[in-house]
Automatic annotation (TrEMBL):
Zn(2+) binds at residues 137, 140, 162, 165. Residues 3-276 form the Deacetylase sirtuin-type domain. The lineage of its organism: Eukaryota, Metamonada, Carpediemonas-like organisms, Aduncisulcus. The active site is at residue 129. This is NAD-dependent histone deacetylase Sir2.
């Protein structure tokens, strides 16, 4: 791949963006930190607060299906913290939305489950790690296409149950530690470790990799596959830009690394792009 060498500046990124018509954005928890949602792997991230979550042995137990079947409480505690509807999008979410509105966004592959892309008006996004919008019963597999089925239970710190499998009750309030949940626990369609990503992921990646002309990675440690593997499927001559607090990914994977808070970097880029409405309306976010 031809390298841009030492020209690692905002102006270079703006130049690439100005010519790009099919931008792929890969985003992670870092873009929602300014909204008040902690990321996972930073010093103050969710995984460092392991002690606060009853019964977890490993931080990643939070997203382990066998663990959830035995003890869904820690996941539901976490779900209450970030349930969609409680937070507002950051400048970065609006920046992605602006790229979309201008017809330059091929796809935003988000690993986030906070739903803030939708709130910011992004249309072309895929929630690679699933969504709270749909859920299913782990016993009978029955599916609900609405968050209303589980929302009030989560907010009241109860475990939602499928009334068909649980003998009529639609929630469970756990009594004491170690007590196993009843039949019919409902799980939101969040992708846990070892679960398949949404079918659309592979379809979109195959299709998008033939059209993409610029890749921007923001707010992700790139530690989780297969989403992180997307970068390896993009042709090597396509410019790849990292906007993050730290360098991540394979050594020298990126043509440009814009290190810092993504809201600050996106604001500077929006100024250079001359996107005045965005800068004036959302600049103080
Ligand atoms: P991580 O917590 O692993 O990484 C967040 C990255 O964002 C780190 O590199 C931070 O330095 C950076 N960061 C934090 N705040 C930032 C800011 N304001 N501006 C710019 N960068 C910032 O989060 P993900 O990569 O999203 O899985 O984690 C991937 C997956 O691991 C998650 O989707 C989750 C977890 O297990 C599921 O939810 C299933």
């Amino acid at each position: 791949r031809q390298r841009l060498g030492t020209v690692n500046t905002l102006d270079d990124a703006a130049l690439i963006l100005r010519h790009a018509r099919n931008v792929v954005m890969l985003t992670g928890a870092g873009i929602s930190v300014a909204c008040g949602i902690p990321d996972f792997r930073s010093k103050n991230g969710l995984y460092a607060r392991l002690g606060e979550w009853d019964g977890l042995n490993e931080p990643t137990d939070m997203f382990s299906l066998p663990f959830f079947r035995d003890n869904p409480i820690p996941f539901y505690k976490f779900a209450k913290e970030l349930l969609p509807g409680q937070f507002n999008p950051s400048f970065t979410h609006h920046f992605i939305s602006e790229i979309d509105r201008r017809g330059r966004l091929l796809r935003n592959y988000t690993q986030n489950i906070d739903g803030l892309e939708k709130t910011a008006g992004v249309k072309r996004y895929l929630q690679c790690h699933g969504t709270f919008d749909t859920c299913r019963c782990l016993t009978c597999g029955r599916k609900w296409n609405t968050m209303e089925k589980i929302k009030h239970h989560i907010l009241n710190q109860r475990v939602p149950l499928c009334e068909f499998c649980s003998g009529g009750k639609d929630f469970w309030e756990h009594a004491s530690p170690g007590v196993k949940p009843p039949q019919g626990v409902i799980k939101p369609d969040i992708v846990f470790f070892s679960e398949q990503l949404p079918e659309l992921f592979d379809l979109f990646v195959d299709e998008d990799c033939t059209r993409v002309d610029c890749v921007i990675v923001m707010g992700s440690s790139l530690k989780v596959k297969p989403v992180a593997g997307l970068l390896g499927r993009v042709p090597r001559y396509i410019p790849q830009i990292l906007i993050n607090r730290e360098i991540v990914g394979r050594p020298h994977a990126f043509d440009l690394c814009l290190l810092g808070d993504c809201d600050t970097v996106c604001f500077e880029l929006a100024c250079r792009m001359g996107w005045r409405d965005l800068v004036e309306e959302r600049g103080d976010l």
